[in-house]
Design brief:
Layout: E1 10-11, H1 24-38, E2 43-51, E3 54-62, H2 64-67, E4 78-84, E5 100-106, E6 111-115, H3 143-157, H4 161-172, H5 181-196
Parallel strand pairs: 1-4
Antiparallel strand pairs: 2-3, 4-5, 5-6
Length: 197
Amino acid sequence: MPSGLYGIENSNRSDVDHWGKNCFNSSFPTAIACYMFDKNISAIYNKLDIVDGKLTVISTEIPINEVFNSGTRTLGFLDFRFESTFLPYQEYSFDGIDSIDLVVRDLAGDYLSPLEVKLTVMPTKETSTRTEDKWGCELVIRSATTSYCALGMFDAIREESAIVREIFERACSTIQSWDNDFEMTHKTPDLSECINN
């Protein structure tokens, strides 16, 4: 690759831009994912599942072509748009949606996957003195992260959106201001119960 980053042939970043401030932290993990894609190496995938009647985090594996939602396309037919908007989600929002770290498209311009990219180290200074099972990493969650999480969840259940609305209606209908920390703190238990449902 002219950029020196594996698999990123088509991109809205120049070869030099990939190495710049606030660019490398999303370009490098994308190149790692491209390598894994090309070598058929799966990623660890944490998901929620019901175990013994309780929601539990389960670690499984997921092929990178599923992460990219690329089907049978090869890397040369993928276009990596950094700090871009995943336009298919716009229909779910009254306001303009922000950009996300990475949007994967094909060369025809079809939108495949929106991805928030986190490059971090583990353990942190605070967790390095603990046993390995207690190690943690620092994650910065931007408002776009939360927004895309919600938009992605809605996209996944859009066929059942009326049922989901019914679950949330009671808890959400009385909220006066979604920006009011005091109000939202008191609504958290109800909203958590709705999410679990």
